Amino acid sequence: MEKIYPLILSGGSGTRLWPLSRGFYPKQFMDLGGDTLFTRTVARALSLPDCAPPIAICNEGHRFLAATALQELGLLAESGDRASILLEPAGRNTAPAIALGTLCASMERDDPLILVLSSDHVIEPVEAFADAVRLAARGAQAGKIAVFGVKPGRPETGFGYIRTGREICPGLFEVGKFVEKPDEEGARTMLADGNCLWNSGMFMFRASVFWEELENHAPEVCAICRSVWNGRMKDLDFIRFPEAEFAACPGISMDYAVMEHTKRACVARLDAAWSDMGSWESFYESGTRDAAGNVLRGDIVQVDAKNSYVHAEHRLVAVLGIDGIDVVETSDAVLVMPRGRSQDVRLVLEELRKRGRYEADNHLRVFRPWGSFVNLVAGERFQVKLIVVKPGGILSKQMHHHRSEHWILVRGTARVTLAGDTSIVREDESVYIPLGAVHRVENPGRIPLELIEIQTGSYLGEDDIVRFDDVYGRDFHKGPA
User: Fold this and answer.
1) Class of residue 155 by CB neighbours under 10 A (exposed 0-12, middle 13-18, buried 19+)
2) Which of 158, 205, 371, 383 could be joined to 145 by an S-S link, Cβ 3.0–4.6 Å?
3) pTM of the model as a whole
4) Which residues does residue 300 pair with via DSSP β-bridges, in sequence order?
């Protein structure tokens, strides 16, 4: 098979999986026990023969999550083939993201073969995925735009469908019709039909074919994406684009922009267990059920519970006498709802944002390029955090106008710069940072550095930072540490 260039779409926020998925820590980057959906997607692509390093497309807020994941996979090393990370200045749906990724791949090879993958899918076994890619590649090499269709296993109302047309070869079909997300009756009808597949949102095509069809059916998207690509800027491991110009691009999906209009569409059947992990119902469907039909994850005690999904992240959760209920617990929020209402979790988020609640977009653990911090305790004029700095991590050189800080090291070794003096601080030692003092901390060791930070002052917001230097290329002046 000729070389394949994978585009990993990672701009989603996973709102239907609140409270586990948050705006600044979405489902594709959630820890699933040693890896994430994002890393699984990259690994799945790299398992294909002759696969180029991936091109990830994500938004500004997730850039360091993507970079850390790719770095851990060895794809951002100084030597060898490197992955690319494109930053969308604003969310404009999948068609513009795919256009920019295709332009990036075309810098490496003339008219490459493009494989578009979503970063939040579960596909098992991986051999079935490889079989479907071979089918899709056959269509793409014949001048088609292939979409991957999954044989439906239930009457799902959360997915679009594809009605298959003439069979080109076993497993590869012409597209008869794209069908919008149906109601329950329509979903049951299509399941019984036998000729309808779930639209997975994954595609494969030759770059030249994509551009011809985008030019024909969405010329404004085509023109703006070519223009912003020409105005691209390199920033560390990232490629950025002119913000105002990209913001003028129509927000439109690949389906609406191209697939529902083109005469060159085909569908490759994916015979695998597939889920976009887009709702709590999908977690229930993909889980192992007990004799009473429950899927239980975490420290759960259940008595007389039936047909329910219970997910505990941080503490014991006990349920009694429930039937058909979802319960999801995290360190700072609990969601309880009837099963089948997963599509309505967005209503909870709308209410949280209306009230200005922190929990809508952030966990207690907040991720930064140098590591993370957890808010432990907060009062009127004080706040306590656990800060974890990964090996080699360096916080920005900074000062605060409204707070002082007291650091107590509990693990590892810190190199601390305070008012121009640098010293090594070890476990059980402490440092006081007066209000207005310029300071920095870094981890020169090989294990994570952990310190307790006690903040006191009249204002403790994350925007009380004046930054003088930052190795991660973030803006000076104000901003998260």
Assistant:
1) middle
2) 205
3) 0.87
4) 317
